[in-house]
Specification:
Layout lengths: L2 E6 L4 H13 L3 E5 L9 H7 L7 E5 L2 H7 L3 E5 L20 E5 L8 H6 L4 E2 L12 H16 L18 H4 L13
Parallel strand pairs: 1-2, 1-5, 2-3, 4-5, 4-6
């Protein structure tokens, strides 16, 4: 089972760059459905993705039908019009199917006809009545965490800083007397 993030008509390169970084961190594939509001070689997108662009698995599609024809699995639509919280999703029910977390354009969301055809699979991240929705990249990160935590992906190190970074015992071994002031409480 693979976790996938689907961006339907993404408009803001910084959001997509942040989502790319999250996809790398959660071992997820990114699917981009045209039209895109930016070029994939745009500096803002690359800057938001930091130096993780070379690790991202992604694919671009002409439209939603093109995406559907090439990707079978369980679809979860994240929309402000959903009637259920994503915390109610049991991702393990998808069994051997790939999981697709589908998000809409920043300004318009997912097309209403797509949502209407998939009402039982529409979810809304709960917020107060003061905002329409959370930022797209924040929503993707929330959903990636929920799915990954349930599915226990073995490639995701949960208990400590990976050894390929600073390692499990980094803080234990830091000599605080030698630290630059930006790493000390003032």
């Amino acid at each position: 089972m693979k976790i996938n993030v689907v961006l339907y008509h993404p408009e803001i390169p910084q959001n997509t760059g942040n989502i790319m970084r999250s996809c790398v961190g959660f071992n997820a594939k990114l699917h981009l459905i045209k039209p895109l509001g930016f070029s994939l070689d745009e500096k803002k997108l690359r800057r938001s993705c930091v130096d993780y662009f070379d690790y991202i698995q992604y694919e671009v599609y002409e439209d939603f039908d093109d995406f559907k024809s090439k990707n079978k699995g369980k679809y979860y639509f994240l929309t402000r019009y959903g009637h259920k919280s994503p915390s109610s999703i049991n991702f393990k029910e998808a069994e051997d199917e790939d999981v697709y977390l589908i998000f809409g354009a920043e300004s318009t969301g997912i097309a209403y006809d797509i949502l209407k055809d998939n009402l039982d699979d529409c979810y809304r991240i709960p917020t107060t009545d003061k905002i329409r929705s959370l930022n797209l990249s924040n929503c993707a990160a929330i959903m990636l965490f929920l799915a990954s935590e349930q599915l226990n992906d073995n490639d995701i190190v949960i208990s400590h800083e990976p050894d390929s970074m600073k390692g499990e015992n980094f803080i234990d071994n830091v000599d605080v007397s030698t630290l630059d002031s930006k790493y000390k409480e003032h």
